[in-house]
Amino acid sequence: VQLQASGGGLVQAGGSLRLSCAASGRSFSSYNMGWFRQAPGKEREFVASIRWSGGSTTYADSVLGRFTISRDNAKNTVYLQMKSLKPEDTALYYCAVVPAWGATTPTAADYWGQGTQVTVSS
After folding, report:
1. Rounded Cα gap, residues 100 and 109, in angstroms
2. What DSSP string describes 58-74?
3. Within a 10 A sphere around the Cβ of 5, how many other Cβ atoms?
4. Nearest to residue 89, comparing CAs of 114, 58, 60, 54?
5. How far is the CA of 33 from the CAs of 2, 41, 42, 86, 107, in angstroms?
6. Could you give the CA distance from residue 35 to residue 59 in angstroms, rounded to a whole number?
7. Nearest to residue 89, comparing CAs of 26, 24, 37?
8. Which of 91, 98, 112, 120 is most buried, judging by how many CB atoms fall within 10 Å of its CB?
């Protein structure tokens, strides 16, 4: 599967952005999907994941209540709605397939997209 992330940009603190990740291939609806991010000089970290059916989601504590992950299997797309953005949310955001539901380590993910940059100014 190939993943294409988009929707990043520059936003002021407190603002919102919606990221999209479009997937190719017919098996998208069977994949658990996740968003990860990597800030300069830091390790890649888990942000959120959604089960293949869309029925379950998980979030990192740092984004809980501010970010919402969703998916549209008819469009082969997963989204990340980000609100109340903070400067510490600045990072390159990646989508990936997460084969094992509940896994939050980047090493557990497969088929990474190319990333989309989110920059939050103070």
Report:
1. 8
2. EE-TTTTTTEEEEEETT
3. 23
4. 60
5. 13, 25, 22, 24, 14
6. 9
7. 37
8. 98
